[in-house]
Amino acid sequence: MTGGVAQRIWGMVLRNAFVLRKSWPRLLDLAYWPTFQLLLWGFLSTFLLTNSSWIAQASGVLISAVLLWDVLFRSNLGLSLTFLEEMWARNLGQLFISPLRPIEMIAALMVISFIRTLISVTPAAFLAMPFFGVWVFDLGIGLAAFFFNLLAMGWAVGLLVSGLILRLGLGAENLCWFVIFLIAPITGIYYPVSVLPEWLQPLSWVLPSTYVFEGMRAVLFEKVFHWDLFFGAVGLNIVYLAVCGGVFLYMFRVAREKGLLLQQGE
Amino acid sequence: MPSLPGEDAGPQNVPAIEVSNLRKSYDGKPAVRNLNFSVARGDIVALLGGNGAGKTTTIAMLLGVLIPTAGEIRVLGTDMRRNRHAVLPRMNFSSPYVGMPARLSVEENLIVYANLYGLRKVKDRVRAMAEELNLQDLLKTPLGKLSAGQKTRASLAKSLINEPELLLLDEPTASLDPDTADWVRSYFKAYRDRTGATILLASHNMTEVERICSDVMMMKDGRIADQGTPAELITRFGRQNLEEVFLDIARSPTAAFPNVEAVP
Fold first, then answer.
1. DSSP state, residue B82
2. Integer distance in angstroms from the first to the last C-alpha of chain A?
């Protein structure tokens, strides 16, 4: 009876795999929105191809942006919704009287988020080819770099949100959805950062996702992978993960002080 | 204290629970005031008291999910404040008020918790627990679809999955019919007799306490108002049964009890 960290993380991954494998509506829901977005933006960019010289230079730019934005969005949701499920199930108390440590919970949430993100964006990535002739894997090594950076940023935002919901209760569960959208207008998903007013641009550059979307456009327009943008995103992600992970652990301690772990639920 | 299976020399000789000067306040309001008690290995002890007496708060602190404002807790010889993860694999908890995932089947829940407790041969252990608690036919049923009695058995299976040396129970037979409640009580006794485990239970059911507990701690306003064996308490208060003792304590001012420690 001496299983270690890996077994406890595996236990948490199993808990979520059991939920996913028996619920086709959940699986469908995961893949539905990215596919829906892909089709919407794909047809829009097909139209713009004939009406915009900028889009015409790189036909996959909007579609790639849609897919990468979904990586960030799904990674955040994959982590924060998984945590919320434990609160909805009033299961946090049971989990934390077991030997599961908060840091192991974080690791499990990241693994589950990774799996859910893959389930979400993979069908859309493959559908982009028959529908719009865009093969996102043409981004090459950049795709993996972009994917993992956005995944990490989604984790950071998800940890921050989960910590806040743990502290504030289920009344704050909508934070899961809207916090990530706060950054959408300023992180240059569909347009370059230079489009933003000058005073807003520095704020955009403190987001790791901005480096990813600028890097994506550089690959598509200039056929160049900018390592400086990549390292900028990695550096900021390390800071974001450390800070947001710290906030989650702090909120967990506050929850233990205030007796919230056994009281959570609807 | 009678010698029980599993009791031997070495660390086994330290009490299962030692609590000293334990306090918990929420925003300055005391919920638990200066508790001092210990529970010997192999005992079944009840924590009694009205609503808000501090029973659940005390149990939450013993489990490590609530940080005390002050004081010390040692469980199975381990300081809970400094090293709770060393002892958590050896204890467990069951309460009808703390849920488990309702969409997962009984078997899936038990597999998850067997992994969290680091067990080897997970499937064998789950099968054994199902057999012991008569859950074989319910293994594939989602927890949310079970009756109250079936849920209690499933929760019990989870709480015993790691064969804990210390089992903490919060109103284990609440909302159960008399037959199921009786079965659950018998099971606790048999489990203690077989393994030598220690059981601390918070309950409102005086018959239950008289039947299975060797010692009782009566809590009121976050303090231990009195303690002793059920028979001692009944004699001391000049009553017929534990329920009458409970009512005496619940309805009288705290100062009426000489055993209450003089604390602010």
1. H
2. 34
Query: How many other CB atoms are there within 10 angstroms of residue B248's CB atom?
Result: 18
| B70 to chain A: closest CA residue | A257
End-to-end CA distance of chain B: 33
Domain count for chain B, please give it: 1
**Range of the structural domain that residue B52 is part of:** 13-98+164-256
Q: Beta strand B198-203 with B17-26: parallel, antiparallel or unpaired?
A: unpaired
- Chain B interface disruption, residue of A97, A104, A256, A260, most B CBs within 10 A: A97
What pLDDT, on a 0 to 100 scale, did the predictor assign at position A178?
A: 82
- B117 and A93: CB-CB below 8 Å? no
From chain A residues 129-168, the ones with a CB under 8 A of any chain B CB are none
The ipTM is: 0.86
Residue B113 covered by a domain: no
pLDDT digits (tens, 9 = 90+) for B53-74: 899 999 999 999 999 999 999 9
CA angle A177-A183-A188, nearest 5°?
130
A contact test, residue of B63, B65, B78, B163 with most A CBs within 10 A: B65
